[in-house]
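Dear Dr. H.,

I hope your travels went smoothly. While you were away I took the liberty of generating a structure for the chain from your last submission, since the lab meeting agenda had it listed for discussion. I wanted you to have the full record in hand beforehand rather than looking at slides cold. The sequence, exactly as received, is reproduced here:
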Amino acid sequence: MAENPTQRRTALHSGAMTLGLMLLVAAAAGGDGWLFSVAALVVAGLAVGGLYLVFPHGPLFALGVANGLAVYMCLYVVIGRSAFPQAISWTLPFGFLMPVAAFVGTCWLKRGELVALASRGLDDADLTHLPRVMRWLLMCGMVGVLAMASPFNRQGPESQTMVLMIAMAAISAISVIAVRDVVRLLVDVAAILTMVTARIRFLVVPMATYVSLFTLLATSFGCLYRIADALSEGPLFQKLGHMGRLDFSEALHFSVVTLATVGYGDILPIDDGVRILATIEMVVGQLLLLFGFSEIMRSRKA
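The corresponding predicted structure, in token form, is as follows:
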């Protein structure tokens, strides 16, 4: 298959996207050792390179692949720590690599059939096959649940390593069997993302207006908190359990948190007047949210 410059740029963008996401997850899971981080990057390269050779369908297809790999890595780390805490360290990256290598290898062997399948579904999403995908995902989930529920996490390193390899071999087999349904799902996700991307241009104006109003309100109320605290005889806020004056950055932080109704609890208003001001900001924030939702829905109908 001859490549033109556009296809090459697409491949580079897709690879950079997948690599960046896997780097982010690998950095967060770095406590599992450098071998695991290296394995994550190898898996990213294998997946994006191998799948691009079979399905050069652009960055949105790659985004679905990258997201699937990131979720898989997160689940592998969480389940691995719970079910196989003493597994031999070098086997962890090998187990992580097994299902991806099996899936990509099967895609390459069946590339003729899968490319034809993918090409028929590029223009529109068809989720009628979703129950089959859910069946395979359920089977993989059952393997994970059995691994976590088994008593092998209290056994020695050899037993844990053996069960880990058996579990990953089972997931690899499921990946091979389900390759057709998974590929179709990835293409459907790309089609849906394409439609969403086409609609984003209608949302730019209401989104920009919402962000602008949010910034204006957060800044205005932050200034009011800072001025009220500075003019009072004593501190009006409690910071991390201790009374103290707010500096300007802390006042802005409290304003943003209040407007978003997040409520971290690191800064608390103690004075009744400031509490009323914070209540007003919260109500205004809810009205702003309703305004943003209304404008988005109106833009959708336009």
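Two observations you may find useful: The first strand starts at residue 237 and ends at 239. Strands lie at 237-239, 242-244, 267-269.

With kind regards,
E. W.
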